Amino acid sequence: MYYTYMLRCKDNSIYTGITSDVKRRMQEHFNKDKKCAKYTLTHSAKKLESVWKSENRILASKLEYRIKHLSKIEKEKLIKNNSLLYEIFGENLDCNEYKSIKVSSV
């Protein structure tokens, strides 16, 4: 399993990434571990906002790529209702390949 996630940073920016272990990856971001992303090293991570589960790295990377190309307004809309994948991406992505995960259960 792989996960695509969105993090809110202290400057209110949104970071998107993928991982095979959400808890470990969040510890790396929040603790500014040597393996954290360069972006979250300089834009301190504040809160995990959204997570989607997919079967493999390729699918997770496709979703990550699509999210990274959204506007800030579209990202905020997706965070407020992370079941809007189909509305936002339409026919450009097979949204049935992704399952939204409650952040509190991660």
Give a structural overview:
The chain has 106 residues and is of the alpha+beta class. The protein has a single domain, classed as GIY-YIG endonuclease (3-Layer(aba) Sandwich). It is 38% helix and 25% strand. The chain has a four-stranded antiparallel sheet, sandwiched between helices. Strand 1 and strand 2 form a beta hairpin. The longest helix has 12 residues, at 57-68.
Helix amount: 25-40%
Number of DSSP strand runs:
4
Q: What is the quaternary state of this protein?
A: single chain
Uncertain runs are none
The strand order across the widest sheet is 2-1-3-4
Q: Which sequence of SSEs, written as H and E, runs from N to C?
A: EEHHEHHHE
Secondary-structure-derived class:
alpha+beta
- In CATH terms, what is the architecture? 3-Layer(aba) Sandwich
Radius of gyration: 13 Å
CATH classification class: Alpha Beta
Discrete helix count: 5
Arithmetic mean of pLDDT = 92
Number of domains: 1
Q: Give the CA-based shape.
A: globular
Whole-Å distance between the termini? 14 Å
Largest sheet: 4 strands, antiparallel
> Could you say what the CATH topology is called?
GIY-YIG endonuclease
Portion in beta strands: 25-35%
Question: Mind sketching the topology for me?
Answer:
Elements: E1 2-9, E2 14-19, H1 22-30, H2 38-42, E3 45-54, H3 57-68, H4 72-80, H5 85-89, E4 99-101
Antiparallel strand pairs: 1-2, 1-3, 3-4
